[in-house]
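The records we work with from here on pair a chain with its fold. A complete example follows; check for yourself that the lines match position by position.
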Amino acid sequence: MTVNCKSIYVVIPAYNEESRITAVLERLQKLGFRNIVVVDDGSTDNTWDVIPEDDGIYKLQHIVNLGPGASTMTGIEFALGRDARYIATIDADHQNDPDDLVQLFADITEKQVDLIIGSRFLKYNHIPFRRIIYNQIGNLVSFWKSGLLLSDSQSGLKVMTRKFAEKLYIEYNGFEFCIDIIKKAKLAGMDIAESPVSVTYTKETLAKGQSFENGLMMLGKLFNPFTKV
């Protein structure tokens, strides 16, 4: 299955992904995606150099590392400026299967929602126990902040409509930005759904992902009484 829509933009926040991002980009192009926005978030490796100067791939760069939330917002703003009708997000580490984006686009139109989240927990995936615990904690925090109980609040695989993207401003730069997006969608009265997706963990992706220390920092930011969310 492939897509063929000039108004679909795929945003990829990338930090030190020189060995993994090429495979993601090649697969997205084979699937028919023609508007791919890569935001190099101040990488210290050769991520910027391996991103091809290809027609349909837009290269944006943060001079310093700001975090996945900031990179995602930069990509969304760029896509809105290019008249995107739908905007997807996917991680650069090939942990997610780019093929799942095709189904997510089909689902967002079929279900007539404004935000659809790819859930690793709605189908069988081999997920390390530690990641399951982190995600369950994130789900509880997301429910506390938004009133919406989801199975995978920390998923980086999403599709949103322009209607929602125009109202969205991500205030958090770290991993807590996923919960921020859910909260903003709920506050804006947007319809939200989940769809099952696949995930593949490697030693490298486990090392760079969410950790206990990052989780504590996320909780501290989200429950700081001086923040808005």
Q: What stands out?
A: DSSP finds nine helices and seven strands in the chain. The chain has one domain: 8-222. The CA atoms of residues 95 and 200 lie 5 Å apart. The mean pLDDT is 89.
